[in-house]
Structure formats: C-alpha cells, structure tokens
Amino acid sequence: MKTPLPVLCLRLLLVIAVVLPLSATRAAQSRPAPVVLATDIGDDVDDTWALVHLLHSPELNLKMVLTDFGAPRFRGSLAAKLLQELGRTDVAVALGVSTGPEEAETRNQYPWMKNYDLATYPGEIHEDGVAAFLDLVRNSPEVVTVIAIGPAPSLAEAVRRDPEFARKCRLVGMHGSFDVGYGEGTAPAAEWNVRADVPSLRTVFGAPWQDILLTPLDTCGMINLRDENYRRVWQAAPEKTAARVIIENYCVWAPRASWMERMFFVTQSSTLFDDVAVYLAYAEDLVEVENVTFNITDDGFTVRDAAGPFHARVALRWRDRAAFEAHLTERVLGDAR
C-alpha cells in the first residue's frame, strides 16, 4: 500500500525540522568561539605564554584583550606590541580600570616594550575598555567566552554597569586554591588573583554567567615546560616568531621578577598558571572537573562551603599532566589561526 502524498510531505517536514536545527548546532560548534582575554599581562610572564597559546588555538577566536588590575596603559601597550609582533592586529585592545599608578618602568616586562607607542597600534584601542567590552558582548550573536587570568576590577566594573551581560557569556578563570597551594603537596593558599582584589572577584562570581569554570592552584600551580618540551621552544626562538617573543620576554622578565629564586630560563619555563585557563576554554579531557560551592574569605582563601554564595565547575586534579604539557608545547610551536 502506497503512503499518501500528504503523509509523505508531513514526514519530510518533520525530518527537516529535526535535521536543520541539529545541522545548525553542529555548524555553530565547529566555528571558533569568540573570546575576550581579561589579563594583568606584564607582571608574570605566564600571561604572555597564555596569549600565544590562545592565538594558536583554532577552537578560539580572540576578539579583544581587556587589561585588568591597574596600569592599564602599560598592560595595553605590552599586549598591543605582542599582538602586532604576532600578526594579530585585528584584535582590539581595551584599557580597563586603573587601580594604581602606571610606574611602567618598574613592570617586569617593561624593557621589552619600553619604546613602543600604543598610538601606533594598527588595530582598535578603546580608552573605556569596559564599555567596549560590554558592547562586544551585547552585539555578539554567539556566546562569548571570557578568559580571566588576573585580579578582576575591570570585569567587576562591567558587572556593576550591566550585570545582565554575563547571561551571554561563559567565564573561564585562573583563580583560587582548594586542596593544594603554591607547589605540589602544600596546603591551600590565598591565591594571588583572588587576594589581590577580593571584593571585585566576589562581584564577578556573583554575576549570572552561563557557566563558570575555574583552574585553581590545584591544577595550574604545577605546570611548566622542561626537558624536551622546553628545549623545543628555546631552540625554535631564532626562527619562529611566537617562540622568539616568548623567550625574549622570559629572559627580560626572569631577572626582574622578585619572587624568582633562581634563573633557570635557559632550561625550563616558569610556572604557566594561565595556560590551563586557556586550555579549559576549549577542552576538559585532561582534567577532572567537579561542581564546587564555596565562599571567599576576606584574606583571599577560596573555601568549600555548602551554604556558600558561589558555584563553579572546578578543575581539581589532572588526568594526564604530562599530556597537557606536551599539548601546550605543540600549541605554542604551531601556527597562529
């Protein structure tokens, strides 16, 4: 018995109704996610590694660097020079909230960019970086991934101006310490990105983000490149722009970083905290993630608290740290998207 034509048409319409949304979803997932990097670049060199990592990640499409935690013009100038050297002047530089004097010459990567004039950056420069950030999010047809790798006064100011922007964003942050502190086997610590500005981070975590995913010291505090991984980056520096930019900044930074106990920049990297946040923006398979409810103490500790006001997915342990460090090496040495 033949199926009547109207019934066939109805079935076809149902198939189209199901398949088209699935196809659209898959297409959307295949596109690089729009990203804003909120960074205190210029104090610890790991932000520089993270920027290179981000630019070499085809899953991510960096739209803006938003400077955070003081010295916005110094941080913006450093980010702009890095972007220009790496051929990515399509990325906007947004100057965030100033929380202190510039004192650029005291900043650890200042010698590398001391002669750079921010006004010469070919891309967009936003003096009111918070307003530019909010406009970017409002005008984006896609969910924006915010990768936060520093203290958060600029993001907190964005929340104060318009907390609803967070509904269009996911937040991936390098913040906190739950079971492990600075160094394997150590007690939890008041991690710098938290304790440097506790009120701001409380404001940020209280916003209505679609998702909050954190790498605390438990996972990010033990990452560095050494042995063959680091040798590959070091040896690539004379010929490969990304490796050269990293090594030049590392060699300038290391003698000026007051917390560095010894100069090992010829043999291994410093701790690359922020690269784990970049990784979590596009993958989670190498870490174990748990849902955690917590509070933030006045002195900057992130503590589990079933009645606490904050909730996040937290990467608490590595499934395969060695695989991540090898992956990071490949990303840094790969081609920019």
Write the layout of secondary structure elements.
Blueprint (H helix, E strand, L loop, with lengths): L4 H26 L2 E7 L6 H10 L4 E8 L4 H14 L6 E3 L15 H4 L11 E2 L2 H11 L4 E5 L4 H9 L7 E5 L18 H4 L2 H8 L5 E4 L2 H4 L6 H10 L4 H13 L19 H8 L6 E10 L5 E3 L5 E9 L2 H13 L4
Parallel strand pairs: 1-2, 1-5, 2-3, 3-4, 5-6, 6-7, 7-10
Antiparallel strand pairs: 8-9, 8-10
Main traits of this protein?
337 residues; alpha/beta; Inosine-uridine Nucleoside N-ribohydrolase, Chain A; ten-stranded mixed β-sheet; 13 helices; globular
Would you write up a description of this structure?
The chain has 337 residues and is an alpha/beta fold. It has one domain: Ribonucleoside hydrolase-like (Inosine-uridine Nucleoside N-ribohydrolase, Chain A). It is 40% helix and 17% strand. It is built from 13 helices and 10 strands. The protein has helices at residues 5-30, 46-55, 72-85, 110-113, 129-139, 153-161, 192-195, 198-205, 217-220, 227-236, 241-253, 273-280, 321-333; strands spanning 33-39, 60-67, 92-94, 125-126, 144-148, 169-173, 211-214, 287-296, 302-304, 310-318. The protein has a 10-stranded mixed sheet with strand order 4-3-2-1-5-6-7-10-8-9, sandwiched between helices. Strand 5 (144-148), helix 6 and strand 6 (169-173) form a beta-alpha-beta unit. Helix 10 runs parallel beside helix 13 (321-333). The longest helix is centred in the N-terminal third of the chain and has 26 residues, at 5-30. It is globular, with a radius of gyration of 21 Å. 45% of the residues are buried. The model is unreliable at 1-28 (pLDDT under 50).
